[in-house]
Write a structure and sequence with these properties.
It is globular and about 65 Å long. α3 packs across α7 (about 195-205) and α9 packs parallel to α13 (about 355-370). With about 375 residues, the protein is of the alpha/beta class. The two termini are about 20 Å apart. Strands 1-9-8-5-4-2-3 form a seven-stranded mixed beta sheet, sandwiched between helices. The chain has a three-stranded antiparallel beta sheet with strand order 7-6-11, with no helix packed on it. The chain has a three-stranded antiparallel beta sheet with strand order 10-12-13, with helices on one face. The chain has 13 helices and 13 strands. The structure holds pyridoxal-5'-phosphate. Pyridoxal-5'-phosphate binds near residues 79 and 151.
Length: about 375
C-alpha cells in the first residue's frame, strides 16, 4: 500500500536520538534549550517554548493569553479538531466563521460579524500550509482589541508577503506529529516575542513551577507538557535540514500539479500571489458530482491510500457536553460543508520517489475518467 504520508528519518536523526539514549538526561537536559533556541531563530521570534504536542501548545497558548470561561474564540470550522478543542479546554467557546473558497482559510470578511462582547481572541489556522492572509485579520483584531493566536501547525516555513507565519499573532503554535513537515514523534512549539508570555508558558507546561525554577515550588496550576530529550534531539536534527525538506516537498507538489493538470473539473489549491507555501498534505477538490467514496475505492484497489481532509468540525458527532455548546448542526457554513465533501488528500511525503508520484497521478486520472 502506498501510504498517505511517511516520516523522513535519516541516519543522522537516528544517531542524534541514540546519543541521548547513552546520556544521563532523558528529560530536562541540554537538547531542549538548544532545540528551542534554534527553532526561535528559524521561526523569526524571540522565544520558542517546546511542548509535548501541538495540542498541548494550543492549550497553553489559551491560558497564557488569558482566554477563560465564558470567552469566545473566533476560528475556522475547516481544520484539525485540536484548534477548536483548545478554547473548550479553558471553558471558552469556539465561534466558527466560514472559509474563503479559494484558500480554505478563515474568511476575514466574516470575522467582524461574529464578534460579540464575549469575543476574546481570533485563532486563524494556516490550513494545509497555505498561509491565511494576516493583513485583514490583524486589522479587525486591532479595531476590536482582540488577541491573535496563530495555529501554524501545518505551515512551518510558510510566509505571508515575505513575513513568516507565526510572527503575526501575540503567539503562534507549531506541531511535529510524524505527518507534519518535520517531526519529533510527538511534539509542539509555542513561539512569541513576548518574554512574559514565554515565561508563563514555560511555567504552565511544567506543573506551574515558579520562575526561579525552584524544585517543587508550584505557585499556579500547571500541566506536564514537557518535551523529552529524545524528541528534542530529533527535532534539532530535522530542523537542521528543514529548508531542504521543504524544497523537496515543493518538488513533489509541483510534480502532482503537472501530472494531474487537464483533468476536467479537478480543482487545485493554488498559492495566491504574495504567499509562500509550506506543503503539509497534497489535497485536491474532486469534480462536482463525482463520488469521493468510489474514487477512494478505486485508488485503494490499486494499492493507494487516500483520506477526506477535513470533515467539518461543527458537524462532528461528539458525545460530551462540549457538543451542545458547539451548536452542532448542518447549514451555517456552506463553503466549508461543500468543500469538505470534495477534498481528497493523496499520498505525499518529503522523499516520495518520482515514480510513485507518477503512479498515483496516473491512477487518479484513470479512476476519475471512469467516475
Ligand atoms: C497537527 C495539528 C495540530 C496539533 O496536533 P498534535 O497532534 O497535537 O501535535 C493543531 N492544529 C492543526 C491545524 C494541526 O494540523
Amino acid at each position: 500500500m502506498i501510504p498517505l504520508s511517511r516520516p523522513d528519518i535519516t541516519p543522522a536523526d537516528r544517531r542524534a536520538v541514540a546519543r541521548v539514549m547513552r546520556s544521563d538526561f532523558l528529560s530536562l537536559g541540554p537538547e531542549l534549550p538548544a532545540f528551542e533556541r534554534e527553532f526561535a531563530r528559524f521561526a523569526g521570534t524571540r522565544h520558542a517554548v517546546a511542548m509535548s504536542s501541538g495540542t498541548a501548545a494550543l492549550h497553553v497558548a489559551m491560558v497564557a493569553c488569558g482566554v477563560g470561561p465564558g470567552d469566545e474564540v473566533i476560528t475556522s470550522p475547516f481544520s484539525f479538531v485540536a484548534s477548536a478543542n483548545a478554547p473548550l479546554f479553558v471553558g471558552a467557546r469556539p465561534v466558527f466563521v466560514d472559509i474563503d473558497p479559494a484558500t480554505l482559510n478563515i474568511d476575514a470578511a466574516g470575522i467582524e460579524r461574529a464578534i460579540t462582547r464575549k469575543t476574546r481572541a481570533i485563532l486563524p489556522v494556516h490550513v494545509f500550509g497555505l498561509p491565511c492572509d494576516m493583513t485583514p485579520v490583524l486589522a479587525v483584531a486591532r479595531r476590536h482589541r482582540l488577541t491573535v493566536i496563530e495555529d501554524a501547525c501545518e505551515a512551518i516555513g510558510a510566509a505571508c508577503r515575505g513575513r513568516k507565519v507565526g510572527t503575526f499573532g501575540k503567539c503562534a503554535v507549531f506541531a511535529f506529529y510524524p505527518n507534519k513537515q518535520m517531526t519529533t514523534g510527538e511534539g509542539g512549539m509555542l513561539v512569541t516575542d513576548d518574554a512574559r508570555l514565554a515565561a508563563h508558558a514555560r511555567s504552565l507546561l511544567n506543573q506551574g513551577r515558579g520562575g526561579s525554577g525552584e524544585w517543587l515550588a508550584h505557585p499556579r496550576l500547571g500541566y506536564n507538557y514537557r518535551l523529552d530529550e529524545m524528541s528534542a534531539a530529533l527535532g534539532r536534527s530535522q530542523l537542521a535540514r528543514l529548508p531542504r525538506m521543504l524544497r523537496a516537498r515543493a518538488r513533489v507538489a509541483a510534480g502532482y500539479r503537472r501530472l494531474l493538470s487537464g483533468i476536467p473539473g479537478l480543482r487545485f489549491l493554488e498559492t495566491p500571489r504574495g504567499m509562500t507555501r509550506s506543503w503539509f498534505v497534497y489535497v485536491v477538490l474532486l469534480p462536482e458530482g463525482v463520488s469521493r467514496a468510489d474514487v477512494q475505492k478505486g485508488l485503494r484497489e490499486a494499492g493507494i491510500d487516500t483520506r477526506p481532509y477535513f470533515p467539518p468540525i461543527h458537524l462532528m458527532q461528539r458525545e460530551w457536553r462540549g457538543a451542545g455548546r458547539l451548536g452542532l448542526k448542518q447549514g451555517p457554513f456552506p463553503v466549508t460543508e461543500s468543500v469538505a465533501e470534495r477534498t481528497l488528500a493523496i499520498p505525499f511525503w518529503t522523499s516520495m520517489p518520482e515514480a510513485t508520484v507518477r503512479r498515483v497521478a496516473a491512477t487518479l486520472r484513470r479512476v476519475l475518467s471512469r467516475a
